[in-house]
Amino acid sequence: MWRRGESVALITLVRLEGSSYRKVGARLLVGADGQYAGSISGGCLEAEVVHKAPWMVRSGAVIVRYSTLFDDTAEIPYGLGCGGTVDLLLEPAGTPEFQSLMEALEASLDGIGSRVVTWLPEAGQRLQRVINPPATAEVPGVFAETILPPQRLIVFGAGDDARSMVEAAALLGWRVVVVDGRAQLAKAQRFPQARLVLVAREFAELEGLGIGAQDALVIMTHSYEQDKAWLAGALKCRPRYLGLLGARHRSALLVSETAAALEWSVDQVCEQLFAPVGLDLGGDGADAIALAAIAEMQGFLNGRIGVSRRMTAAMVAAQMKQGAQKGSSQGSLQPRCAL
To answer: Which of 116, 147, 178 is a domain's end point?
Structure first.
């Protein structure tokens, strides 16, 4: 909409008192034909502001306050019930301020974050905006924000179940990269929601991705040897989240062998690894596994994780002992599916 020159106004939630469905920084881009992208509420305010925004910004940017507080439930304003007050910045499209912000938002999709400081149109002050300014003290009438890139998820494995994982992550707006050594599976047309699909067999081939501390990784190739290679490389990158799909004994064997290969303790590996990946939500099939995994990632990345199924060194030792008693070996595990 913006690149096509069809937008007429941008709406940003700049202040919040009480409860609200969206957080400060939420945005809504309004098109000339009544179309819009984004949201500033749970759907309660959108119709109101999309209808009024084009004429409200004719003379320039304005601040509009909407209250969701009410005493008589028979007269709920605009169908709202959050119990808070929101201040919205409405600004016209096509201005230098609008252009600079949209370019910063676009750059974030490519992994480039920025600091944005906006002087709000209040108390006789006109709207002004600076991208990546020197350190600025927070003062009344100034809206300062950091625009971070969307969470990046790197999925190692391009099987059919990986498609559900990619779709679920894309719904959250994450940037998804799919990696697999099998060219017949690692095809862009199989993963239309992924930003990048790569054929790679060695972790060294992924140097250009710059995998690091802000990334989330999940390993799900269903190949024991591939999983072991990806796990060793992923651990050295120390990502924010690292999940491993597979049965508990298979995961224990991978952890044990990878720890030995890296000359790490089993505890060191377990501290960085979620295995088996995902919250214990129940269900069956690729969609249920994707839901459990994405829910665990979302909770952990936002500091809200509850009960997970992370392995410990004691659990690994118990699984290895149990496997030895049953006569299991790496060789017998290799041809089996990780599920």
So the answer is: 147
